[in-house]
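> example.struct
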């Protein structure tokens, strides 16, 4: 790690904050802590963190609202939601929250540290990629086009609102058309996950979300297709 990165922990259970702080600092991160949503929002604005670990159930303001508020203010800091419920994955990864990732409690510290590292690297990489990209709206297939400068995706001339995660998966698959990738490989290559836990479902959720946004009939997709038992590919 070149410059020291700062992680903001927003969590009201002190013992969880303590163990997160201890482990993150041992990995070389600086930490900021907030014990309620309002203070978390304030520290996110003023502390310039490189990543936020955000609990959902918090006093004063719930985690979802903290994340939504930051995004509405144009703040794109990576946010990992700490959720107690796997069923919340859809909500967490969906547009309505604007989070980048989630991890379910109880989490393994090893996996959490891996996620923190992956999300910080991913943000650095996409910033670098955006800086060197000189392409403007490139037609991809059918009615779909991607502007890699502005990170905008257009479907039949209409701008499609994608999360960062959805955009990255789409551009990765579209730049290797007709090649089938397994979920594990997509986790590693698109999102730079060095350690794979049980969360390959993240890929399925992201594919489903993408289909809802770019396919005319998400039940009969024409862009992102499933090769049963193998993985996903972008068809042209
Ligand atoms: Ca809580």
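> example.seq
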């Amino acid at each position: 790690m070149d410059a020291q990165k700062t992680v903001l922990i927003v969590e009201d259970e002190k013992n969880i904050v303590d163990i997160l702080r201890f482990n993150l600092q041992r990995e070389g991160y600086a930490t900021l802590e907030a014990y309620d949503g309002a203070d978390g929002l304030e520290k996110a604005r003023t502390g310039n963190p490189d990543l936020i670990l955000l609990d959902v159930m918090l006093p004063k303001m719930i985690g979802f609202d903290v994340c939504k508020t930051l995004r509405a203010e144009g703040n794109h800091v990576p946010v990992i939601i700490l959720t107690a419920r796997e069923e919340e994955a859809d909500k967490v990864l969906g547009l309505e929250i604007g989070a980048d990732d989630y991890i379910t409690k109880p989490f393994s510290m090893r996996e959490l540290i891996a996620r923190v590292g992956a999300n910080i690297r991913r943000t650095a990489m996409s910033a670098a990629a955006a800086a060197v990209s000189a392409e403007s709206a490139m037609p991809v297939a059918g009615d779909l086009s991607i502007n890699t400068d502005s990170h905008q995706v257009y479907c039949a001339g209409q701008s499609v609102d994608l999360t960062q995660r959805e955009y990255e998966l789409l551009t990765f698959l579209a730049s290797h058309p007709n090649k089938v990738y397994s979920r594990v490989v997509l986790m590693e290559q698109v999102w730079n996950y060095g350690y794979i836990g049980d969360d390959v479902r993240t890929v399925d959720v992201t594919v489903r979300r993408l289909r809802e946004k770019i396919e005319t009939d998400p039940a009969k997709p024409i862009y992102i297709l499933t090769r049963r038992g193998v993985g996903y590919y972008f068809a042209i």
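> remarks
DSSP finds eight helices and eleven strands in the chain.
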